[in-house]
Amino acid sequence: MIVAAKTHKGLVRDKNEDCFFIDDIAYRLFVVADGMGGHKAGEIASREAVQIIKEELLSGKTENSVEETMKSAFQKANKKIYDMASDSEEMEGMGTTLTVMYVADHLLHFAHIGDSRAYFIGDQALEQITTDHTLVEQLILNGTLSRKEAATHPNRNVITKAVGVDKTLSADYYVKNNDNKRVLICSDGLTDSLNDEEIFEIISRNATASDAANALVEQSNQKGGHDNITVVLIDFNEKVREVEA
Do 220 and 193 touch, CB atoms closer than 8 A? Predict the structure, then answer.
């Protein structure tokens, strides 16, 4: 397994409120979070969420199923961030997206809140695994908006679910076969700048995962770099376990 990651604050934001984690010991856990909120609140929210996911998923506890453990971890992250936001005016309204992949028994377990995405990278195209929790996605699903219209809609960044914003939350959960596929997990700084076809083309023309990750971030910044950008690429085809710088 070869893994590569790259994060960048972009060209407009003052700081990077994205946070990611790669389990480079057992290669089981991969996380991307995109924080939101004033002052340093977004940065704090994403960092806290990732830390709790790490603690819960890598603790070695085996009494619960993967699904129960992942959903419980999301609930704990939600409570921690919600309580922090409730206790501080500076942190009021903070929250974070959270997209997690956990590898167990040749299956890929995904849990997800917000508009950070997970994709399979196929031979011909990307296949989006997660569903965005956004206003425009709701409009697409009810037939009010087309995908093409959504790409330029003024409210395309309005998310409808995030960790820490409400007292309770329900995470999406997916289980996929691990058929030696490649996986991309990313924040919306990438997908707002580049469409799926552009992302696939960039990944396809680069020989290594690290080259592809760097190229995705570079191209996003060339398109304006309006948001923080985080990219995690996992290639299950490779027999060597390595994290590329």
Answer: yes
**Per-residue pLDDT tens over the stretch 205-232:** 999 999 999 999 999 999 999 999 999 9
Q: In whole angstroms, give the CA distance from residue 221 to residue 206.
A: 18
Domains of the chain: residue spans and CATH: 2-244 (3.60.40.10)
Q: Taking Cα atoms as reference points, which of 199, 6, 172 lies closest to residue 101? A: 172
Q: Which two tokens stand for residue 123?
A: 């031979």
Q: Hey, what are 88's tokens? A: 């501080």
Count of alpha carbons within 13 angstroms of residue 16, beta-carbon side: 18
Reported as a single tens digit per residue, the pLDDT across 73-113 is 999 999 999 999 999 888 888 999 999 999 998 899 999 99
Q: Which residues contact 106 (CB under 8 A, 6 or more apart)?
A: 177, 178
Question: DSSP characters for 88-155?
Answer: -TTTTT-EE-EEEEEEETTEEEEEEESS-EEEEE-SSSEEE-S---BHHHHHHHTTSS-HHHHTT-TT
Q: What stretch of H or E contains 75?
A: helix 66-87
Tokens 């009494």 belong to 63
Amino acid, single-letter form, for residue 220: S
